[in-house]
Each structure stands twice: as structure tokens, then as C-alpha cells.
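Lab notebook, design round three. We kept the backbone fixed and only want residue identities now. Task for the bench partner: fill in a sequence for the structure below.
Input C-alpha cells:
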């Protein structure tokens, strides 16, 4: 019985959202930007998750659309600064440090982030230490 009540409540909410969003189906317009703007305007009435599910928009798409260009620019600037710091540490170590050591040195400088991000940025910018040779075939005799 409790499950039926939950389902009934969910269906009522979905019907309310569909009633509010009926403008999209009447026009035949499937403009994603218009859907995102509609969700942003009505987000106080119901949850973002419900609006996105009913209108067929992913939540990640909505939240990335919601971020301002200034926020995206600030993130890019932080990433560029991190790349510069990685390059300087790499060059200071005479190009001998890998992602793990560079990450630990960054942590020592106050950077808080994932080692995998450091490894990813190093791969993207083709920053890699030379491959060490572990011995010579002639030495095993």
C-alpha cells in the first residue's frame, strides 16, 4: 500500500510538470536550451531531478548549462596554473619525476587535488620522464 502511495505521488508530480511544460509539446519544439531555461525558472516548484527526467534532459547537462562563462573561465585558469606548476616541478627535478612524486610535491605546496588529474595533465601535455633501463642483456653472464 505504501508503495502505491509513493507511485501515485510521483505520477501526480510528473503530471504537474507535464502540464507546466505543455508549451514544448504544443509547439512541436524540442529546443534543449528552452527546456533548460524552463527548468531553471521552475526549479523551486519541484526537484531538478524530476524536471530533468520528465523533459528528457540529463542533470549534468542542466548543471553545466547553469554555470556561468566566468566560472568555466576560472576553472580553465586554475587548470592552466596547475599545468605551469607541474612543468616547473618537472623541470626542477631535471625531468625525472613522475606523476606520483609531482603530486606529493604539489601537496607540500598546498595543492589539494587528485594524483590522477596530475597524471592526466602530464599525459595531455606530453610531460613524461625518460624510461629507465633496468640493466643490460650482456650483464647477466
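Proposed sequence:
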Amino acid at each position: 500500500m505504501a508503495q502505491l502511495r509513493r507511485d501515485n505521488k510521483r505520477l501526480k508530480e510528473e503530471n504537474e510538470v507535464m502540464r507546466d511544460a505543455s508549451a514544448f509539446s504544443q509547439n512541436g519544439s524540442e529546443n534543449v536550451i528552452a527546456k533548460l531555461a524552463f527548468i531553471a525558472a521552475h526549479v523551486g516548484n519541484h526537484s531538478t531531478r524530476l524536471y530533468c527526467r520528465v523533459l528528457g534532459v540529463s542533470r549534468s547537462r542542466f548543471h553545466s548549462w547553469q554555470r556561468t562563462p566566468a566560472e568555466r573561465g576560472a576553472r580553465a585558469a586554475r587548470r592552466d596554473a596547475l599545468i605551469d606548476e607541474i612543468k616547473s616541478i618537472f623541470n626542477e627535478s631535471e625531468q625525472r619525476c613522475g606523476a606520483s612524486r609531482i603530486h606529493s610535491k604539489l601537496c607540500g605546496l598546498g595543492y589539494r587535488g587528485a594524483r590522477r588529474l596530475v597524471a592526466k595533465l602530464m599525459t595531455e601535455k606530453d610531460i613524461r620522464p625518460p624510461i629507465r633501463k633496468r640493466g643490460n642483456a650482456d650483464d647477466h653472464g
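Keep this in mind before ordering anything: Helices lie at 2-20, 22-27, 32-42, 48-55, 59-66, 69-92, 99-108, 115-124.
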